[in-house]
Structure formats: structure tokens, C-alpha cells
What we know:
β3 and β4 (23-24) form a beta hairpin. The two termini are 21 Å apart. This protein has strands spanning 2-4, 9-13, 17-18, 23-24, 29-36, 41-49, 57-61, 73-80, 86-96. Helices cover 0% and strands 53% of the residues. The radius of gyration is 15 Å and the shape is elongated. The strands form 2 sheets. It has a 7-stranded mixed β-sheet with strand order 1-9-8-5-6-7-2, with no helix packed on it. It has a two-stranded antiparallel ribbon with strand order 3-4. By secondary structure, it is mainly β. The chain contains no helices and 9 strands. The protein has a single domain (2-96), classed as Immunoglobulin-like (Sandwich), CATH 2.60.40.1930. The model has no long low-confidence stretch (mean pLDDT 93).
Amino acid sequence: MTIYDGNDNVVTLSGLYDVIAGGYSNDATVTWAIAHDGGSPVASGVLTYVAGSRGNYRGIIEEDIDWNVHPSWHIDITADAGNDRIGFWKTDLIIATRSA
């Protein structure tokens, strides 16, 4: 996932599907956390359900993270649909600078 330094960035979880219930999940608690490899989270937030979608959740990563303190970063996304139905995703981040 590419993150643009100095910009707000959108993080999306698409198509959260509950295999046990047999349908898309629109009421899960979905959170994200960013950390550098081997470090504690430096930022975290919530993804909210996109109304009318099929299990899509979206959140904002604010622009004020200092990406220069470490060369390797990742984002962890956790979805909790209740009744011990947990999903977890870990994705490496690419930090980029926008150019004209």
C-alpha cells in the first residue's frame, strides 16, 4: 500500500465477508494501526462502514506521521464482527512523495 508523505491518506478494507453468517459484514468494528518493523504503533484509527456497500470500510490516516524515523513500516487492520469472528491483515507500506 502506498502512503503519500505530508498528505491525508485513505485506508480501505473492501468486501468484508462473514463466511459463518453467509453474507457481507456491515456492522463490524474495524481498526487500523501503523508501526515500524519491531516497533509500537505510532498512529491508529477506525474504519467506518461505507453505507450501501458490500462490506467496505474506510478511514483516514492523517498527514502528520514522521515517516523519516524508520525505513520500514506496516499497517495492521483488525475486523471484529462479534461472536469471536476476527479478521486480521498486515500490509507493508511504501512511503512516497507526490510530485507534479
